[in-house]
Amino acid sequence: MSHLLMEFQLQAKPISDVEFAQFQRFIFEAAGISMADAKKALVTGRLGKRLAAHQLESFGDYFRLLTSGQYPEEVQMAVDLLTTNETYFFREIKHFEFLRAQAIKARNQSQPFRVWSAASSSGEEAYSVAMVLADCMQTTPWDIMGTDISTRVLDGARRALYSMERGRHIPPEFLKRYCRKGTGQYDGMLLVNPELRQRVVFRHANLNAALPEFGKFDIVFLRNVMIYFNNETKRQVVARVIASIKPGGYFCIGHSESLNDISTAVQMVAPSIYLKS
After folding, report:
1. What are the chain's domains?
2. What pTM was estimated for this model as a whole?
3. Which of 46, 180, 199, 240 is catalytic?
4. Which of 62, 69, 227, 277 has the greatest number of beta carbons closer than 10 A?
5. In which band, very low, low, confident or very high, does the pLDDT at 10 lie, cut at 50, 70 and 90?
6. Per-residue confidence band for 92, with pLDDT thresholds at 50, 70 and 90
7. Measured distance CA(158)–CA(256) in Å, rounded
8. 46 catalytic, yes or no?
9. Residues 5-31: what's their mean pLDDT?
């Protein structure tokens, strides 16, 4: 850390309740995320370096910079920093068992089997899906799209370089077939094979706004994201996502999440798995 950065971090005033409320409103309006009062330390820690970078003395000054309309790249940077990204390969394994079963059923169809990882974070979910489809789809065409609001994590997803710890749940045969083990300066890392990386497209998308035209999907994963939304935001986000699912397609949410009182457009067929009729 440079002496200049340390100096400005020391000079920055602690975030006030009023300033914290401004950032709560900022991230809600940008991403639909309801940030709890207990997250004040998170905001201070993640945005403190941006105050230093702009040589600002208070979080209020930084908020005014963000809302001035003159720094769109800085707004995206702040959204990236305030978006929580926590994932690993083959998280909630039953969803991937379900994915395999549906993919095998679709092997004779002429249209590509399409899966959307709608909050893909750093890419582990999308590449887990890719490993399953590469293993079982045979000659049937398939494609995967991953989206996230954070451009920073999408850049990481495209690199596809992860710690071995993040890959601890990858089945051994998949680890051997679809990943490369790092050596030298990359010891303790794994890299997803180029052939698999080419099958996954990552795009920037904000689920809290009108979505681009992505086409229709056989299965959509939107897992462990809605816990950050209030009920009205959940309804709006779920409606947008379900509109992108083919009739007869499926919607997978996190095991701790529910669509009770959120949508009647899909019916639960198993815990956290819903069918669009």
Report:
1. 3-82 (1.10.155.10), 93-276 (3.40.50.150)
2. 0.86
3. 46
4. 62
5. very low
6. very high
7. 28
8. yes
9. 80
